[in-house]
Amino acid sequence: MIAGPELFGRQVVRTTPYESDPSRWAVLDDGCAWQLAELPAGVLATLTRHFEVPTEDAKGPVRLSATVTVHRTAQRGLGTGRNAGGVPRLQGGASAAG
User: Fold this and answer.
1) CA-based angle 56:16:19, to the nearest 5?
2) Closest CA to 18 of 70, 64, 56
3) Which of 4, 17, 79, 80 is most buried when burial is the number of CB atoms within 10 A of its CB?
4) Residue 15 pLDDT more than 90?
């Protein structure tokens, strides 16, 4: 189960692309830039949906996302220099999953 735009409010709309590829996930590199990587062995699937709240001023829309990740076990690598799914953060642009 993952949230749709109606759960965020009347003004929230889907963006394009609306859903991510469930066989890949986003991880932060050392420069805090999002990179797509293969899912690690302990992650079965992940899905992110993207939304926005349109605005009428020049500042642009407010962007929202909702993510659900299914792990093989309940253990996660929190507090270990890894992201919430236990995957090491990317270093120097290298892939965390392979």
Assistant:
1) 130
2) 64
3) 4
4) yes
* Residue 81 CA to its chain's centroid (Å): 18
- In the chain, where are the structural domains located? 12-51
| Per-residue confidence (pLDDT) for residue 79, from 0 to 100 | 42
What torsion, rounded to 10 degrees, do the Cα atoms 89, 90, 96, 98 define? -160
Cα-flanking dihedrals φ and ψ of residue 15, to 5°?
-110, 175
Q: What is the pLDDT of residues 41-95, one digit of tens each?
A: 889 889 999 999 988 877 889 999 898 888 888 765 444 455 555 555 544 444 3
